Amino acid sequence: MIEAVVNVSEGRDLGIVGQIGAAAGKLLLDTHSDPFHHRSVYTLAGEAEEIELATLALSRRAVELVDLSGHRGVHPRLGAVDVVPFVPYAEPYEVALAARDRFAAALSSEGVPCFLYGPERTLPEIRRRAWVSLSPDLGPKAPHPTAGATCVGVRGVLVAYNLVIESTIERARGIARALRGPSVRALGLPVGGEVQVSFNLIEPDRVGPAQVYDEVERLVPIRRSELVGLVPGPVLERIPRARWRQLDLAEERTVEARLAALR
Q1: Which of 219, 188, 189, 204 has the alpha carbon at shortest distance from 249?
Q2: Where in the chain are the domains?
Q3: pTM of the model
Q4: 3-state helix, strand, coil in the chain (%, to 5)
Q5: Which of 72, 101, 198, 208 is the 20 to 30 Å CA partner of 241?
Q6: What's the gap between Cα 88 and its chain centre?
Q7: Helix 48-65 to helix 93-108 angle, to the nearest 10 degrees?
Q8: What digits encode the pLDDT tens for the residues 189-243?
């Protein structure tokens, strides 16, 4: 099984969010939308061939419906279909890499430039260098007029996680800098009059939601936590059940539980 986690730059018009998600059909496990990030995260899972087709169908619909030229949101983005990672959840890495390459070839052939990440480079590197010192790997050499460009990658299992804190944006950015490392990517962001530290936990077996919650709480009060999308079952199992509510976690919000519900 391969997981695809499609990040689309639309988080306010839930009608459009729903139309985009419907294009993925039965492989769609979860949709998470945020109006301040102005972003929706769609989690899909399936066998390699069917996940490519579903991800491409969802992405085509997003290109049709999302116009990036007027987009305003706190989350960094390069495109209407901003990031599409393929995750070898129960497959060899090479299978996910091949799925990534076929998807990127198909999307770029339809006029959307694609930057590749995984063995070539990291996603943060693309965000720093795109259109400055880095050209797309596939497709046109200039952004699509309404859809921008898409970052298409292959990566391991990741947990996206947000903490709203009682502090200033300067403090949030300082905390994000302090906690960044090989297992953690972090940003300090203003969200609707509040302040958020937004995490990508790229090695959740080593540093998961509980660890970053405790690190942040040691520095500032936390108002609330937010899981973005789904959490892998093994990551949840390592966290005491008594903490799940505090950390915004639940068994029904695991990839495994959503897959079981589809059977």
Answers
A1: 204
A2: 2-154, 159-262
A3: 0.94
A4: 35, 30, 35
A5: 198
A6: 15
A7: 30
A8: 999 999 999 999 999 999 999 999 999 999 999 999 999 999 999 999 999 999 9
